[in-house]
Amino acid sequence: MEKLVSLCKRRGFIFQSSEIYGGTGSVWDYGPLGVELKKNLKERWWNAMVRARTDIEGLDAAILMHPRVWEASGHVSGFVDPLVDCRNCKKRFRADDPKIKGTPGAPDAQCPACGMKGTLSEARQFNLMFKTFMGPVEDSAAVVYLRPETAQGIYVNFLNVQQSTRQKVPFGIAQIGKAFRNEITPGNFIFRTREFEQMEMQFFVEPGEDMKWFEYWKAQRMEWHRGLGLAESRLQFHEHTRDELAHYARAAFDVQFDFGGTLGFQEIEGVHNRGDFDLTQHQTFSGKKLEYFDQPNNRRFTPFVVETSVGADRTTLAVLVNGYREEAVEGESEGRTVLGLHPSIAPIKAGVFPLVKKDGMPEMAHRIADELRSHLPVFYDDSGAIGRRYRRQDEVGTPFCITVDGESTSGGTVTVRDRDSLKQERVDAGQLRAYIGEKLRT
Ligand code: ATP
Asked: In the predicted model, is pLDDT for residue 25 greater than 90?
């Protein structure tokens, strides 16, 4: 993880927020390459979940919602974690932190940070929602929350979307957006942060059909993660036990990814069968019906919901961890660091290099880069030895490197080097767009 964090900073993927002021606790900024990587990932999700389907509609609901939303959803009363603090070192922990020895509050309980005994407070409930004020007067009547999940924006818009699109159940609503949680113990880089992005889809189905759709979405979502290039051996399902299951949930599975090291397998996505809990709660609290009218059968019902909820940042971390490797290169003294990102999410698709800065090579390489740039993100580089330039692209996950050499200016062909196999092929310069386009599709 340390190596990855350092690579991410050095190459402009991810920086600590407000670093020059000493940083903000567990908030991160995406740099030039990071923003491309995360955008590509979100686009892949949006394409698979919205654009490629006729039964899912997109939505972009606001972050600030009516405060009653969070009473209806159960977040005001129940979105809490048990918090304990150490009177000696002032550090805070979740009461269920496995590193705590003994029961917090008891004299023999030991602080996992300073090691003192008897200094841990008893657990108290801490609400994870960020509060702010709407309007100029800071009184309690104007308290609003930064949403801790995007799902509620979908539920409250269920009928707006259904009626405006004339979708019939079963159908889904998807959105990508920021969520905020005042986590007690954030950390592990972008794994658990206080501001993050979720990609959520709520699928509305007829009661009784819910388990069928739950199984369907479970399989679809795992397939999506595999398609992203996450190694089969690093992916698994975790079924929520009775203790873990929310009181309203009928079934829940997490897709877990093996982050290695001390983290190991951790949730990257949740697939939940939420029954009619959310729509029913919003009907009760708002006094407005959120029922579906089934025209052919002339009846009304409150649909059940199957939810798929995945973190864009946590998945970004998963593809970085999955792709990072250091390897020896045959015939070379120096090894290389590679980010084996799936080509579809790689921030730069091709590096374009003149072998040397003379004999018309830079001009031809510039022409190629300019032509490709309107179709693909490319990077022109003529500084340093060619091996160095290859390494720089390997390290940021660029799948192809195009080199203009002595043969290029006379014969019109260039070499295209594959990041993973290191094989070089000669390709007609005029065919480059089609050649790379084809490779990116597979
Ligand atoms: P965890 O148990 O790790 O706190 P959760 O079960 O509370 O997660 P959900 O509410 O199901 O998570 O949110 C869905 C997804 O949103 C998670 O699978 C994860 O990818 C992402 N996510 C949730 N909390 C955070 C966070 N603090 N930082 C980054 N991503 C998060």
From this structure: no
Q: Mind listing the pLDDT tens digit for each residue in 206-237?
A: 999 999 999 999 999 999 999 999 999 999 99
- Name the β-bridge partners of 92: 85
Residue 428, Cα to own-chain centre: how many angstroms? 38
Question: Tell me, what's the pLDDT at 60?
Answer: 98
- Residue 167: HSE in the Cβ half-sphere, 13 Å Cα cutoff: 21
Q: Which of 267, 271, 319 to mutate to test the pocket of ligand 1 (most atoms within 8 A of CB)?
A: 267
Give 311 Cα–ligand 1 centroid separation in angstroms.
Answer: 6
Q: Which of 23-27, 148-152, 260-264 has the highest mean pLDDT?
A: 148-152
Ligand 1: centre distance to CA 112 (Å): 24
| Ligand 1 center to 82 CA (angstroms) | 17
How far away, in angstroms, is 161 Cα from ligand 1 center? Answer: 26
Q: Choose which residue among 75, 178, 192 to substitute to test ligand 1 binding: the one with the highest number of ligand atoms within 8 A of its C-beta.
A: 192
Atom of ligand 1 nearest to the CA of 198: 16
How many other C-beta atoms lie within 10 A of the C-beta of residue 235? Answer: 19
**Distance from residue 351's CA to the centre of ligand 1 (Å):** 35
On the question of pLDDT at 362 being above 90, the answer is: yes
Ligand 1 neighbours, Cβ below 6 Å, are: 149, 181, 183, 192-193, 196, 198, 267-270, 309-311, 313-314
Helix (H, G, I), strand (E, B) or coil at 38: helix
**What pLDDT digit, counting tens, does each position of 120-148 carry?**
999 999 999 999 998 887 776 689 999 99
CB 183 within 8 A of CB 94: no
- How high is the pLDDT of residue 334? 82
Average pLDDT estimate for 409-425: 95
Give exposure, 339-349, as e/b (b: 16+ Cβ within 10 Å). Answer: bbbbbbbbbbb
Token pair in block for residue 279: 């729509």
The whole-number pLDDT of residue 140 equals 67
Query: By alpha-carbon position, which residue is closest to atom 2 of ligand 1?
Result: 267
Q: Give me the DSSP letters along 250-309.
A: SEEEEEEEE--TTT-EEEEEEEEEEETHHHHHHHHHH-----EEETTTTEEEPPEEEEEE
In what helix (H) or strand (E) does residue 58 lie, and over which residues does it extend? strand 56-58
CA 7 to ligand 1 center in whole angstroms: 25
